[in-house]
Amino acid sequence: MTTKEYIESGNLEAFVLGALTPQEEAIVLADIAADPELAKEVAAIEEALLNYAIAGSMPPPDDLKEKIWDNINTTQKENKAGITPTITPDANEAVGGRSIPFTPPVRNTQWRYAAIWVALVGSVAMNGMFWVQNSNQKQQFERQASVLNKMTEDQKALVQAVKTYKKNADMMADTAMQTIVMHTVVKGHPMAATLYWKKDKGEAYVMIEGLPKPPKGMQYQLWAIQAGKPVDMGMMPVDMAGTASIQKVDRPVMAGEAFAISLEKAGGNPTPTTENIYVLGKS
Amino acid sequence: MPPIAATYSEEELVLLLKQQSRDAFNYLYKNYSGVLYGVINKVVFDEETANDVLQEAFVKIWNNIDQYDNRKGRIYTWMINIARNTAIDKLRSKGEIMRAKIQTGEDVVNDVIKGQNTEQSTDTIGLRKMVAALRPEYEVIVSLAYFKGFTLDEISKTLNIPLGTVKTRMRSAMQQLRNEFNN
After folding, report:
1. Would the pLDDT of B117 be above 80?
2. Which residue, A210, A211, B29, B126, has most beta carbons within 10 Å?
3. What is the extent of the structural domain holding B5?
4. B84 and B103 inside one domain
5. For position B174, what pLDDT does the model report?
6. Which residues of chain B make contact with A49, given a CB cutoff of 8 A?
7. What is the pLDDT of residue A50?
8. Taking the model in full, what pTM does it have?
9. Do B58 and B99 belong together in one domain?
């Protein structure tokens, strides 16, 4: 900041009006000491304020003058009585018996130091308070931000889920859609899967809610039986078993007398392992 | 002791006060009590408190004259600051400042204006000139800072105006006073 900008900032006026904190005041004092231009400006502001105060003069009540004089005399006596005995002996020794001029403001100096300490301690305490307040607010803000993030994530997931349900509902509402329920072929193990098939479009969807989770390293594979032979229709994602999720079959299903699902090694096999065919349904 | 002259320079006044004589007091009181009392009355609102503060201020000036340092400014300003600070301390000890600080800006502004009005009706010596010297939006800020001991931040919050605006208005207010009073 240039001297001109400093002068125009209003900081010096705030200083003279006594509106700065002790810390800010100390900074301005140092700046004034370093720059005579600033000191000149401060003197001019003080002069204006002095004239402003003079213009607002009010005569005090008539009886006040004597009261104040009495008061001054009393406090002076008190000061002398309180301080002289403690100073005199040492002072006399030091200067060989010569009397030391009385210095009354000792008390006031102490009072000033006390005031400075009170101000300092107060200011430190306030800083502490503001710091705590600030960090509390920060924490609160962070908590709120994380709650908000979580809500946004939840909402995204919900929107996704609604979209999926809507798609599934549309798909199932389609009158051209054929539903083929594949039943268990393993004795003693009641299992089921469903295939939704729109034959004219070659579009198919599969749901394997009624199948157990595949063991590690294994995956379900869908087969369409075409002209008596099983044709690979793709792998079912591992986590799909036992859930109501509906997966689109990613290759066109143009024909199929029947459909079957077998448990195969991850990635699938070119032909189904016969003893691992779990469900089968005729179209 | 030399006879008391009609007027003294500031340097002479300091020396006179250091004599701590009745004549020195008479001169001090005659020439400065009105200004100090005017300032005190801008800070506190009741006469009894103002009288107490004037008394305290004179005692402080009398007892602390050795601490006055002319390199730090005029003795006149030094004395006014003693009166002003004593009055603000009194206001604080009575809890009035704290009360003012939790009031809404409007209340404080009304208080300041009310203070002016009372004084305007009771005082005839140039106070009208003093009030007329400042625009109301400046007057409020000068009063809060100089006579009520508010910090920039407190003024900004009390009047609900940005800190920068408070400073700008302080600058403008003092410019106006300088144009009015300084030669």
Report:
1. no
2. A211
3. 1-94
4. no
5. 94
6. 77, 146, 174, 177
7. 92
8. 0.52
9. no
* Test the A interface: residue of B22, B48, B63 with most A CBs within 10 Å: B63
CATH number, domain at B20? 1.10.1740.10
Q: Does one domain contain both B29 and B80? A: yes
Neighbours of B95 (CB within 10 A): 9
Please say if the pLDDT value at position B35 is more than 70. yes
Question: Hey, is the C-beta of B119 within 8 angstroms of any chain A C-beta?
Answer: yes
Domain count, chain B: 2
Q: CA-nearest residue of chain A to B179?
A: A48
- When CB atoms are compared, the residue of A11, A54, A72 closest to B62 is A72
Percent of chain A's residues with pLDDT above 70:
87
Do B52 and B99 reside in the same domain of the chain? no
Is B70 within 8 Å of chain A by CB? no
Q: Nearest Cα to B86, choosing from A267, A176, A146, A111? A: A111
Q: Tokens in use for A245?
A: 């999720």
Shared domain check, B124 and B43: no
Give A122 to chain B, closest Cα distance, Å: 15
A–B CB contacts, 8 A cutoff, strictly below: 160
Which of the four pLDDT bands, split at 50, 70 and 90, describes residue B46?
Answer: confident
**Domain boundary residue, one of B40, B61, B94:** B94
Verify that B34 and B86 share a domain, yes or no.
yes
Q: Are residues B22 and B62 in the same domain?
A: yes
Regarding whether B103 and B81 lie in a shared domain, the answer is no
Q: Do A50 and B76 touch (CB under 8 A)?
A: yes
Nearest to A19 among B37, B145, B171 (CB): B145
Q: Which of A18, A55, A67 sits opposite B145 (nearest CB)?
A: A18
- Least confident range from B58-62, B97-101, B143-147: namely B97-101
Q: How confident is the model at residue B95 (pLDDT cuts 50, 70, 90)?
A: low
- Edge-to-edge strand list for the sheet holding A178-184: A229-235, A218-226, A258-265, A277-282, A178-184, A192-198, A203-210, A246-248
Question: Residue A147 corresponds to which amino acid?
Answer: V
Helix (H, G, I), strand (E, B) or coil at A29: helix
Q: Which of B94, B125, B145 is the last residue of a domain?
A: B94
Instruction: Say which residue, A87 or A235, is predicted with more confidence.
Output: A235
C-alpha distances out from residue A202 to A176, A205, A255, Å: 11, 10, 8
Asked if A17 contacts A49 with a C-beta cutoff of 8 angstroms, the reply is yes
pLDDT greater than 70 at residue A100:
no
